[in-house]
Specification:
By secondary structure, the chain is α+β, with helices and mostly antiparallel strands. The chain contains three helices and six strands; from the N terminus they run ααβββαβββ. It is elongated.
């Protein structure tokens, strides 16, 4: 059995990378911060998990950070809007888990230390173990 955190990250990578609108706005969707990539790009960052079980089912609440790096304001608005529109699509099977709820819980738009803007979107996924 894989952890819910890894399953949510894998599902997020697949949903984001498969969207032609988003991939038309950025140069790629990466697992973590890529060693070499030209901006703009999306990275699926770390995932934090906590217990979200019920009396009769194992569950996890997972928060995953999706980041748009090195993007000008106009592209950032379009790409961030597209990511937020894709978040409900994270629901469904994810390995041994079922994502039963997915929503954006926090966003942050800051100037990056390496230049350009960085837009971070934190997504909360609630997962139940498929038995």
């Amino acid at each position: 059995m894989r952890g819910a955190e890894a399953a949510v990250r894998e599902r997020a990578l697949g949903v984001l990378a498969d969207d032609v609108v988003l991939t038309g706005l950025v140069h790629g969707v990466f697992d973590g911060v890529p060693a070499r990539a030209s901006a703009p790009y999306v990275s699926v960052g770390g995932a934090d998990g906590s217990d979200w079980g019920t009396k009769d089912a194992a569950g996890r609440e997972v928060r995953v950070t999706l980041a748009l790096a090195g993007i000008g304001e106009a592209v950032a608005d379009a790409a961030a809007g597209r990511i937020e529109a894709l978040v409900p699509g994270l629901r469904g099977e994810a390995g041994d888990w079922r994502i039963v709820g997915a929503r954006v819980v926090r966003t942050r738009f800051v100037f990056g230390k390496d230049g350009g803007w960085r837009h971070e979107i934190v997504v909360r996924c609630r997962c139940l173990l498929e038995a």
